[in-house]
Amino acid sequence: MRILHTSDWHIGRTFHGVDLLADQAAALTAIAELVAEHGADVVVVPGDIYDRSIPSADAVAVCNAGLEAIRAAGAVIIATSGNHDSPVRLGAGAAFAAHGGLHLITRVSQVARPLVLNDEHGPVAFYGIPYLEPEITRAELDVPGARSHQEILDAAMARVQTDAAERSGRAVVLAHAFVVGGEPTESERSISVGGVETVSAATFDGADYVALGTCIRRRRCPNTSGIRGRCCRTRSASGRTARRCGSSTSTSPGSRPSIASTFRWCEN
Ligand SMILES: [Mn+2]
User: Fold this and answer.
1) How far is the CA of 144 from the centre of ligand 1 (A)?
2) Ligand 1: distance of its center to the CA of 119 in Å?
3) Structure pTM?
């Protein structure tokens, strides 16, 4: 199965007062072109679709047009809410959107209800873990004493692992988390990066591929693979502008996912 992993679109973000919407619209168009070019089956977007919880009307229009283009290019879309998104607003109409191939996962109750897609090797279960605010979600997750993002994600992943143990096939987990190292972070103080507390890579043990949002650098985690797929513009030494639109991942049973960074070059 071919998965295009992108995240942190932050649609509507301005940079020192400069409107980025035209660039963001172009980046979403480029993602749709990559889907068609590489025959991606699924596009995963683990969080921060929008830059703010109440996006502008223009930002919503750009997002919808991008999602429609990606879907029209042939990929199913699985997106979760990040810490910048409003889960309720992003998830509005999710049950209806799912019928059109846009799967919006924004609620605790959806965490252990994977979207299962099939290829020639069998099923792949996609679990979406939205960014879960401890104060808001700990009761529903049945961990009333949880204070940290680590404790909350442990509880969410326990639900995922319980469900996955009852299934055959591969498991892909989407999460909006800043992942560090391979060991539990109990003895370390909690560190917040971009408003998101760090969590241990071991949290995601058992997944065949972990699609992360919010992480800053490419990271390889034990038993898992997490890589950011952030949409951003960078300038190369030659003066050209690269729009990095995501990474493509292929998953097949019994082997590590193969990951290729995907860039789209354009003249500036
Ligand atoms: Mn972000």
Assistant:
1) 27
2) 31
3) 0.84
- Quote the ligand 1 centre to 263 CA distance (angstroms): 19
CA of 174 to the centre of ligand 1 (A): 14
CA atoms within 13 A on the CB side of 119: 15
9: domain CATH number is 3.60.21.10
Could you tell me which of 90, 202, 108 has the C-alpha nearest to residue 146?
A: 108
pLDDT digits (tens, 9 = 90+) for 88-123: 999 999 999 999 999 999 999 999 999 999 999 999
Gap between the Cα atoms of 147 and 144, Å rounded:
9
256 CA to centre of ligand 1 in angstroms: 27
Q: Please report the beta strands in 22-121, taking only residues with DSSP state E, as ranges in sequence order.
A: 42-46, 76-80, 102-105, 115-119
CA of 48 to the centre of ligand 1 (A): 5
- What is the residue range of 191's domain? 2-266
Q: How many residues does the chain have?
A: 268
Q: Report CA(8)–ligand 1 centroid distance (Å).
A: 5
Domain count, the chain: 1
Contact predicate 73/87, CB 8 Å: no
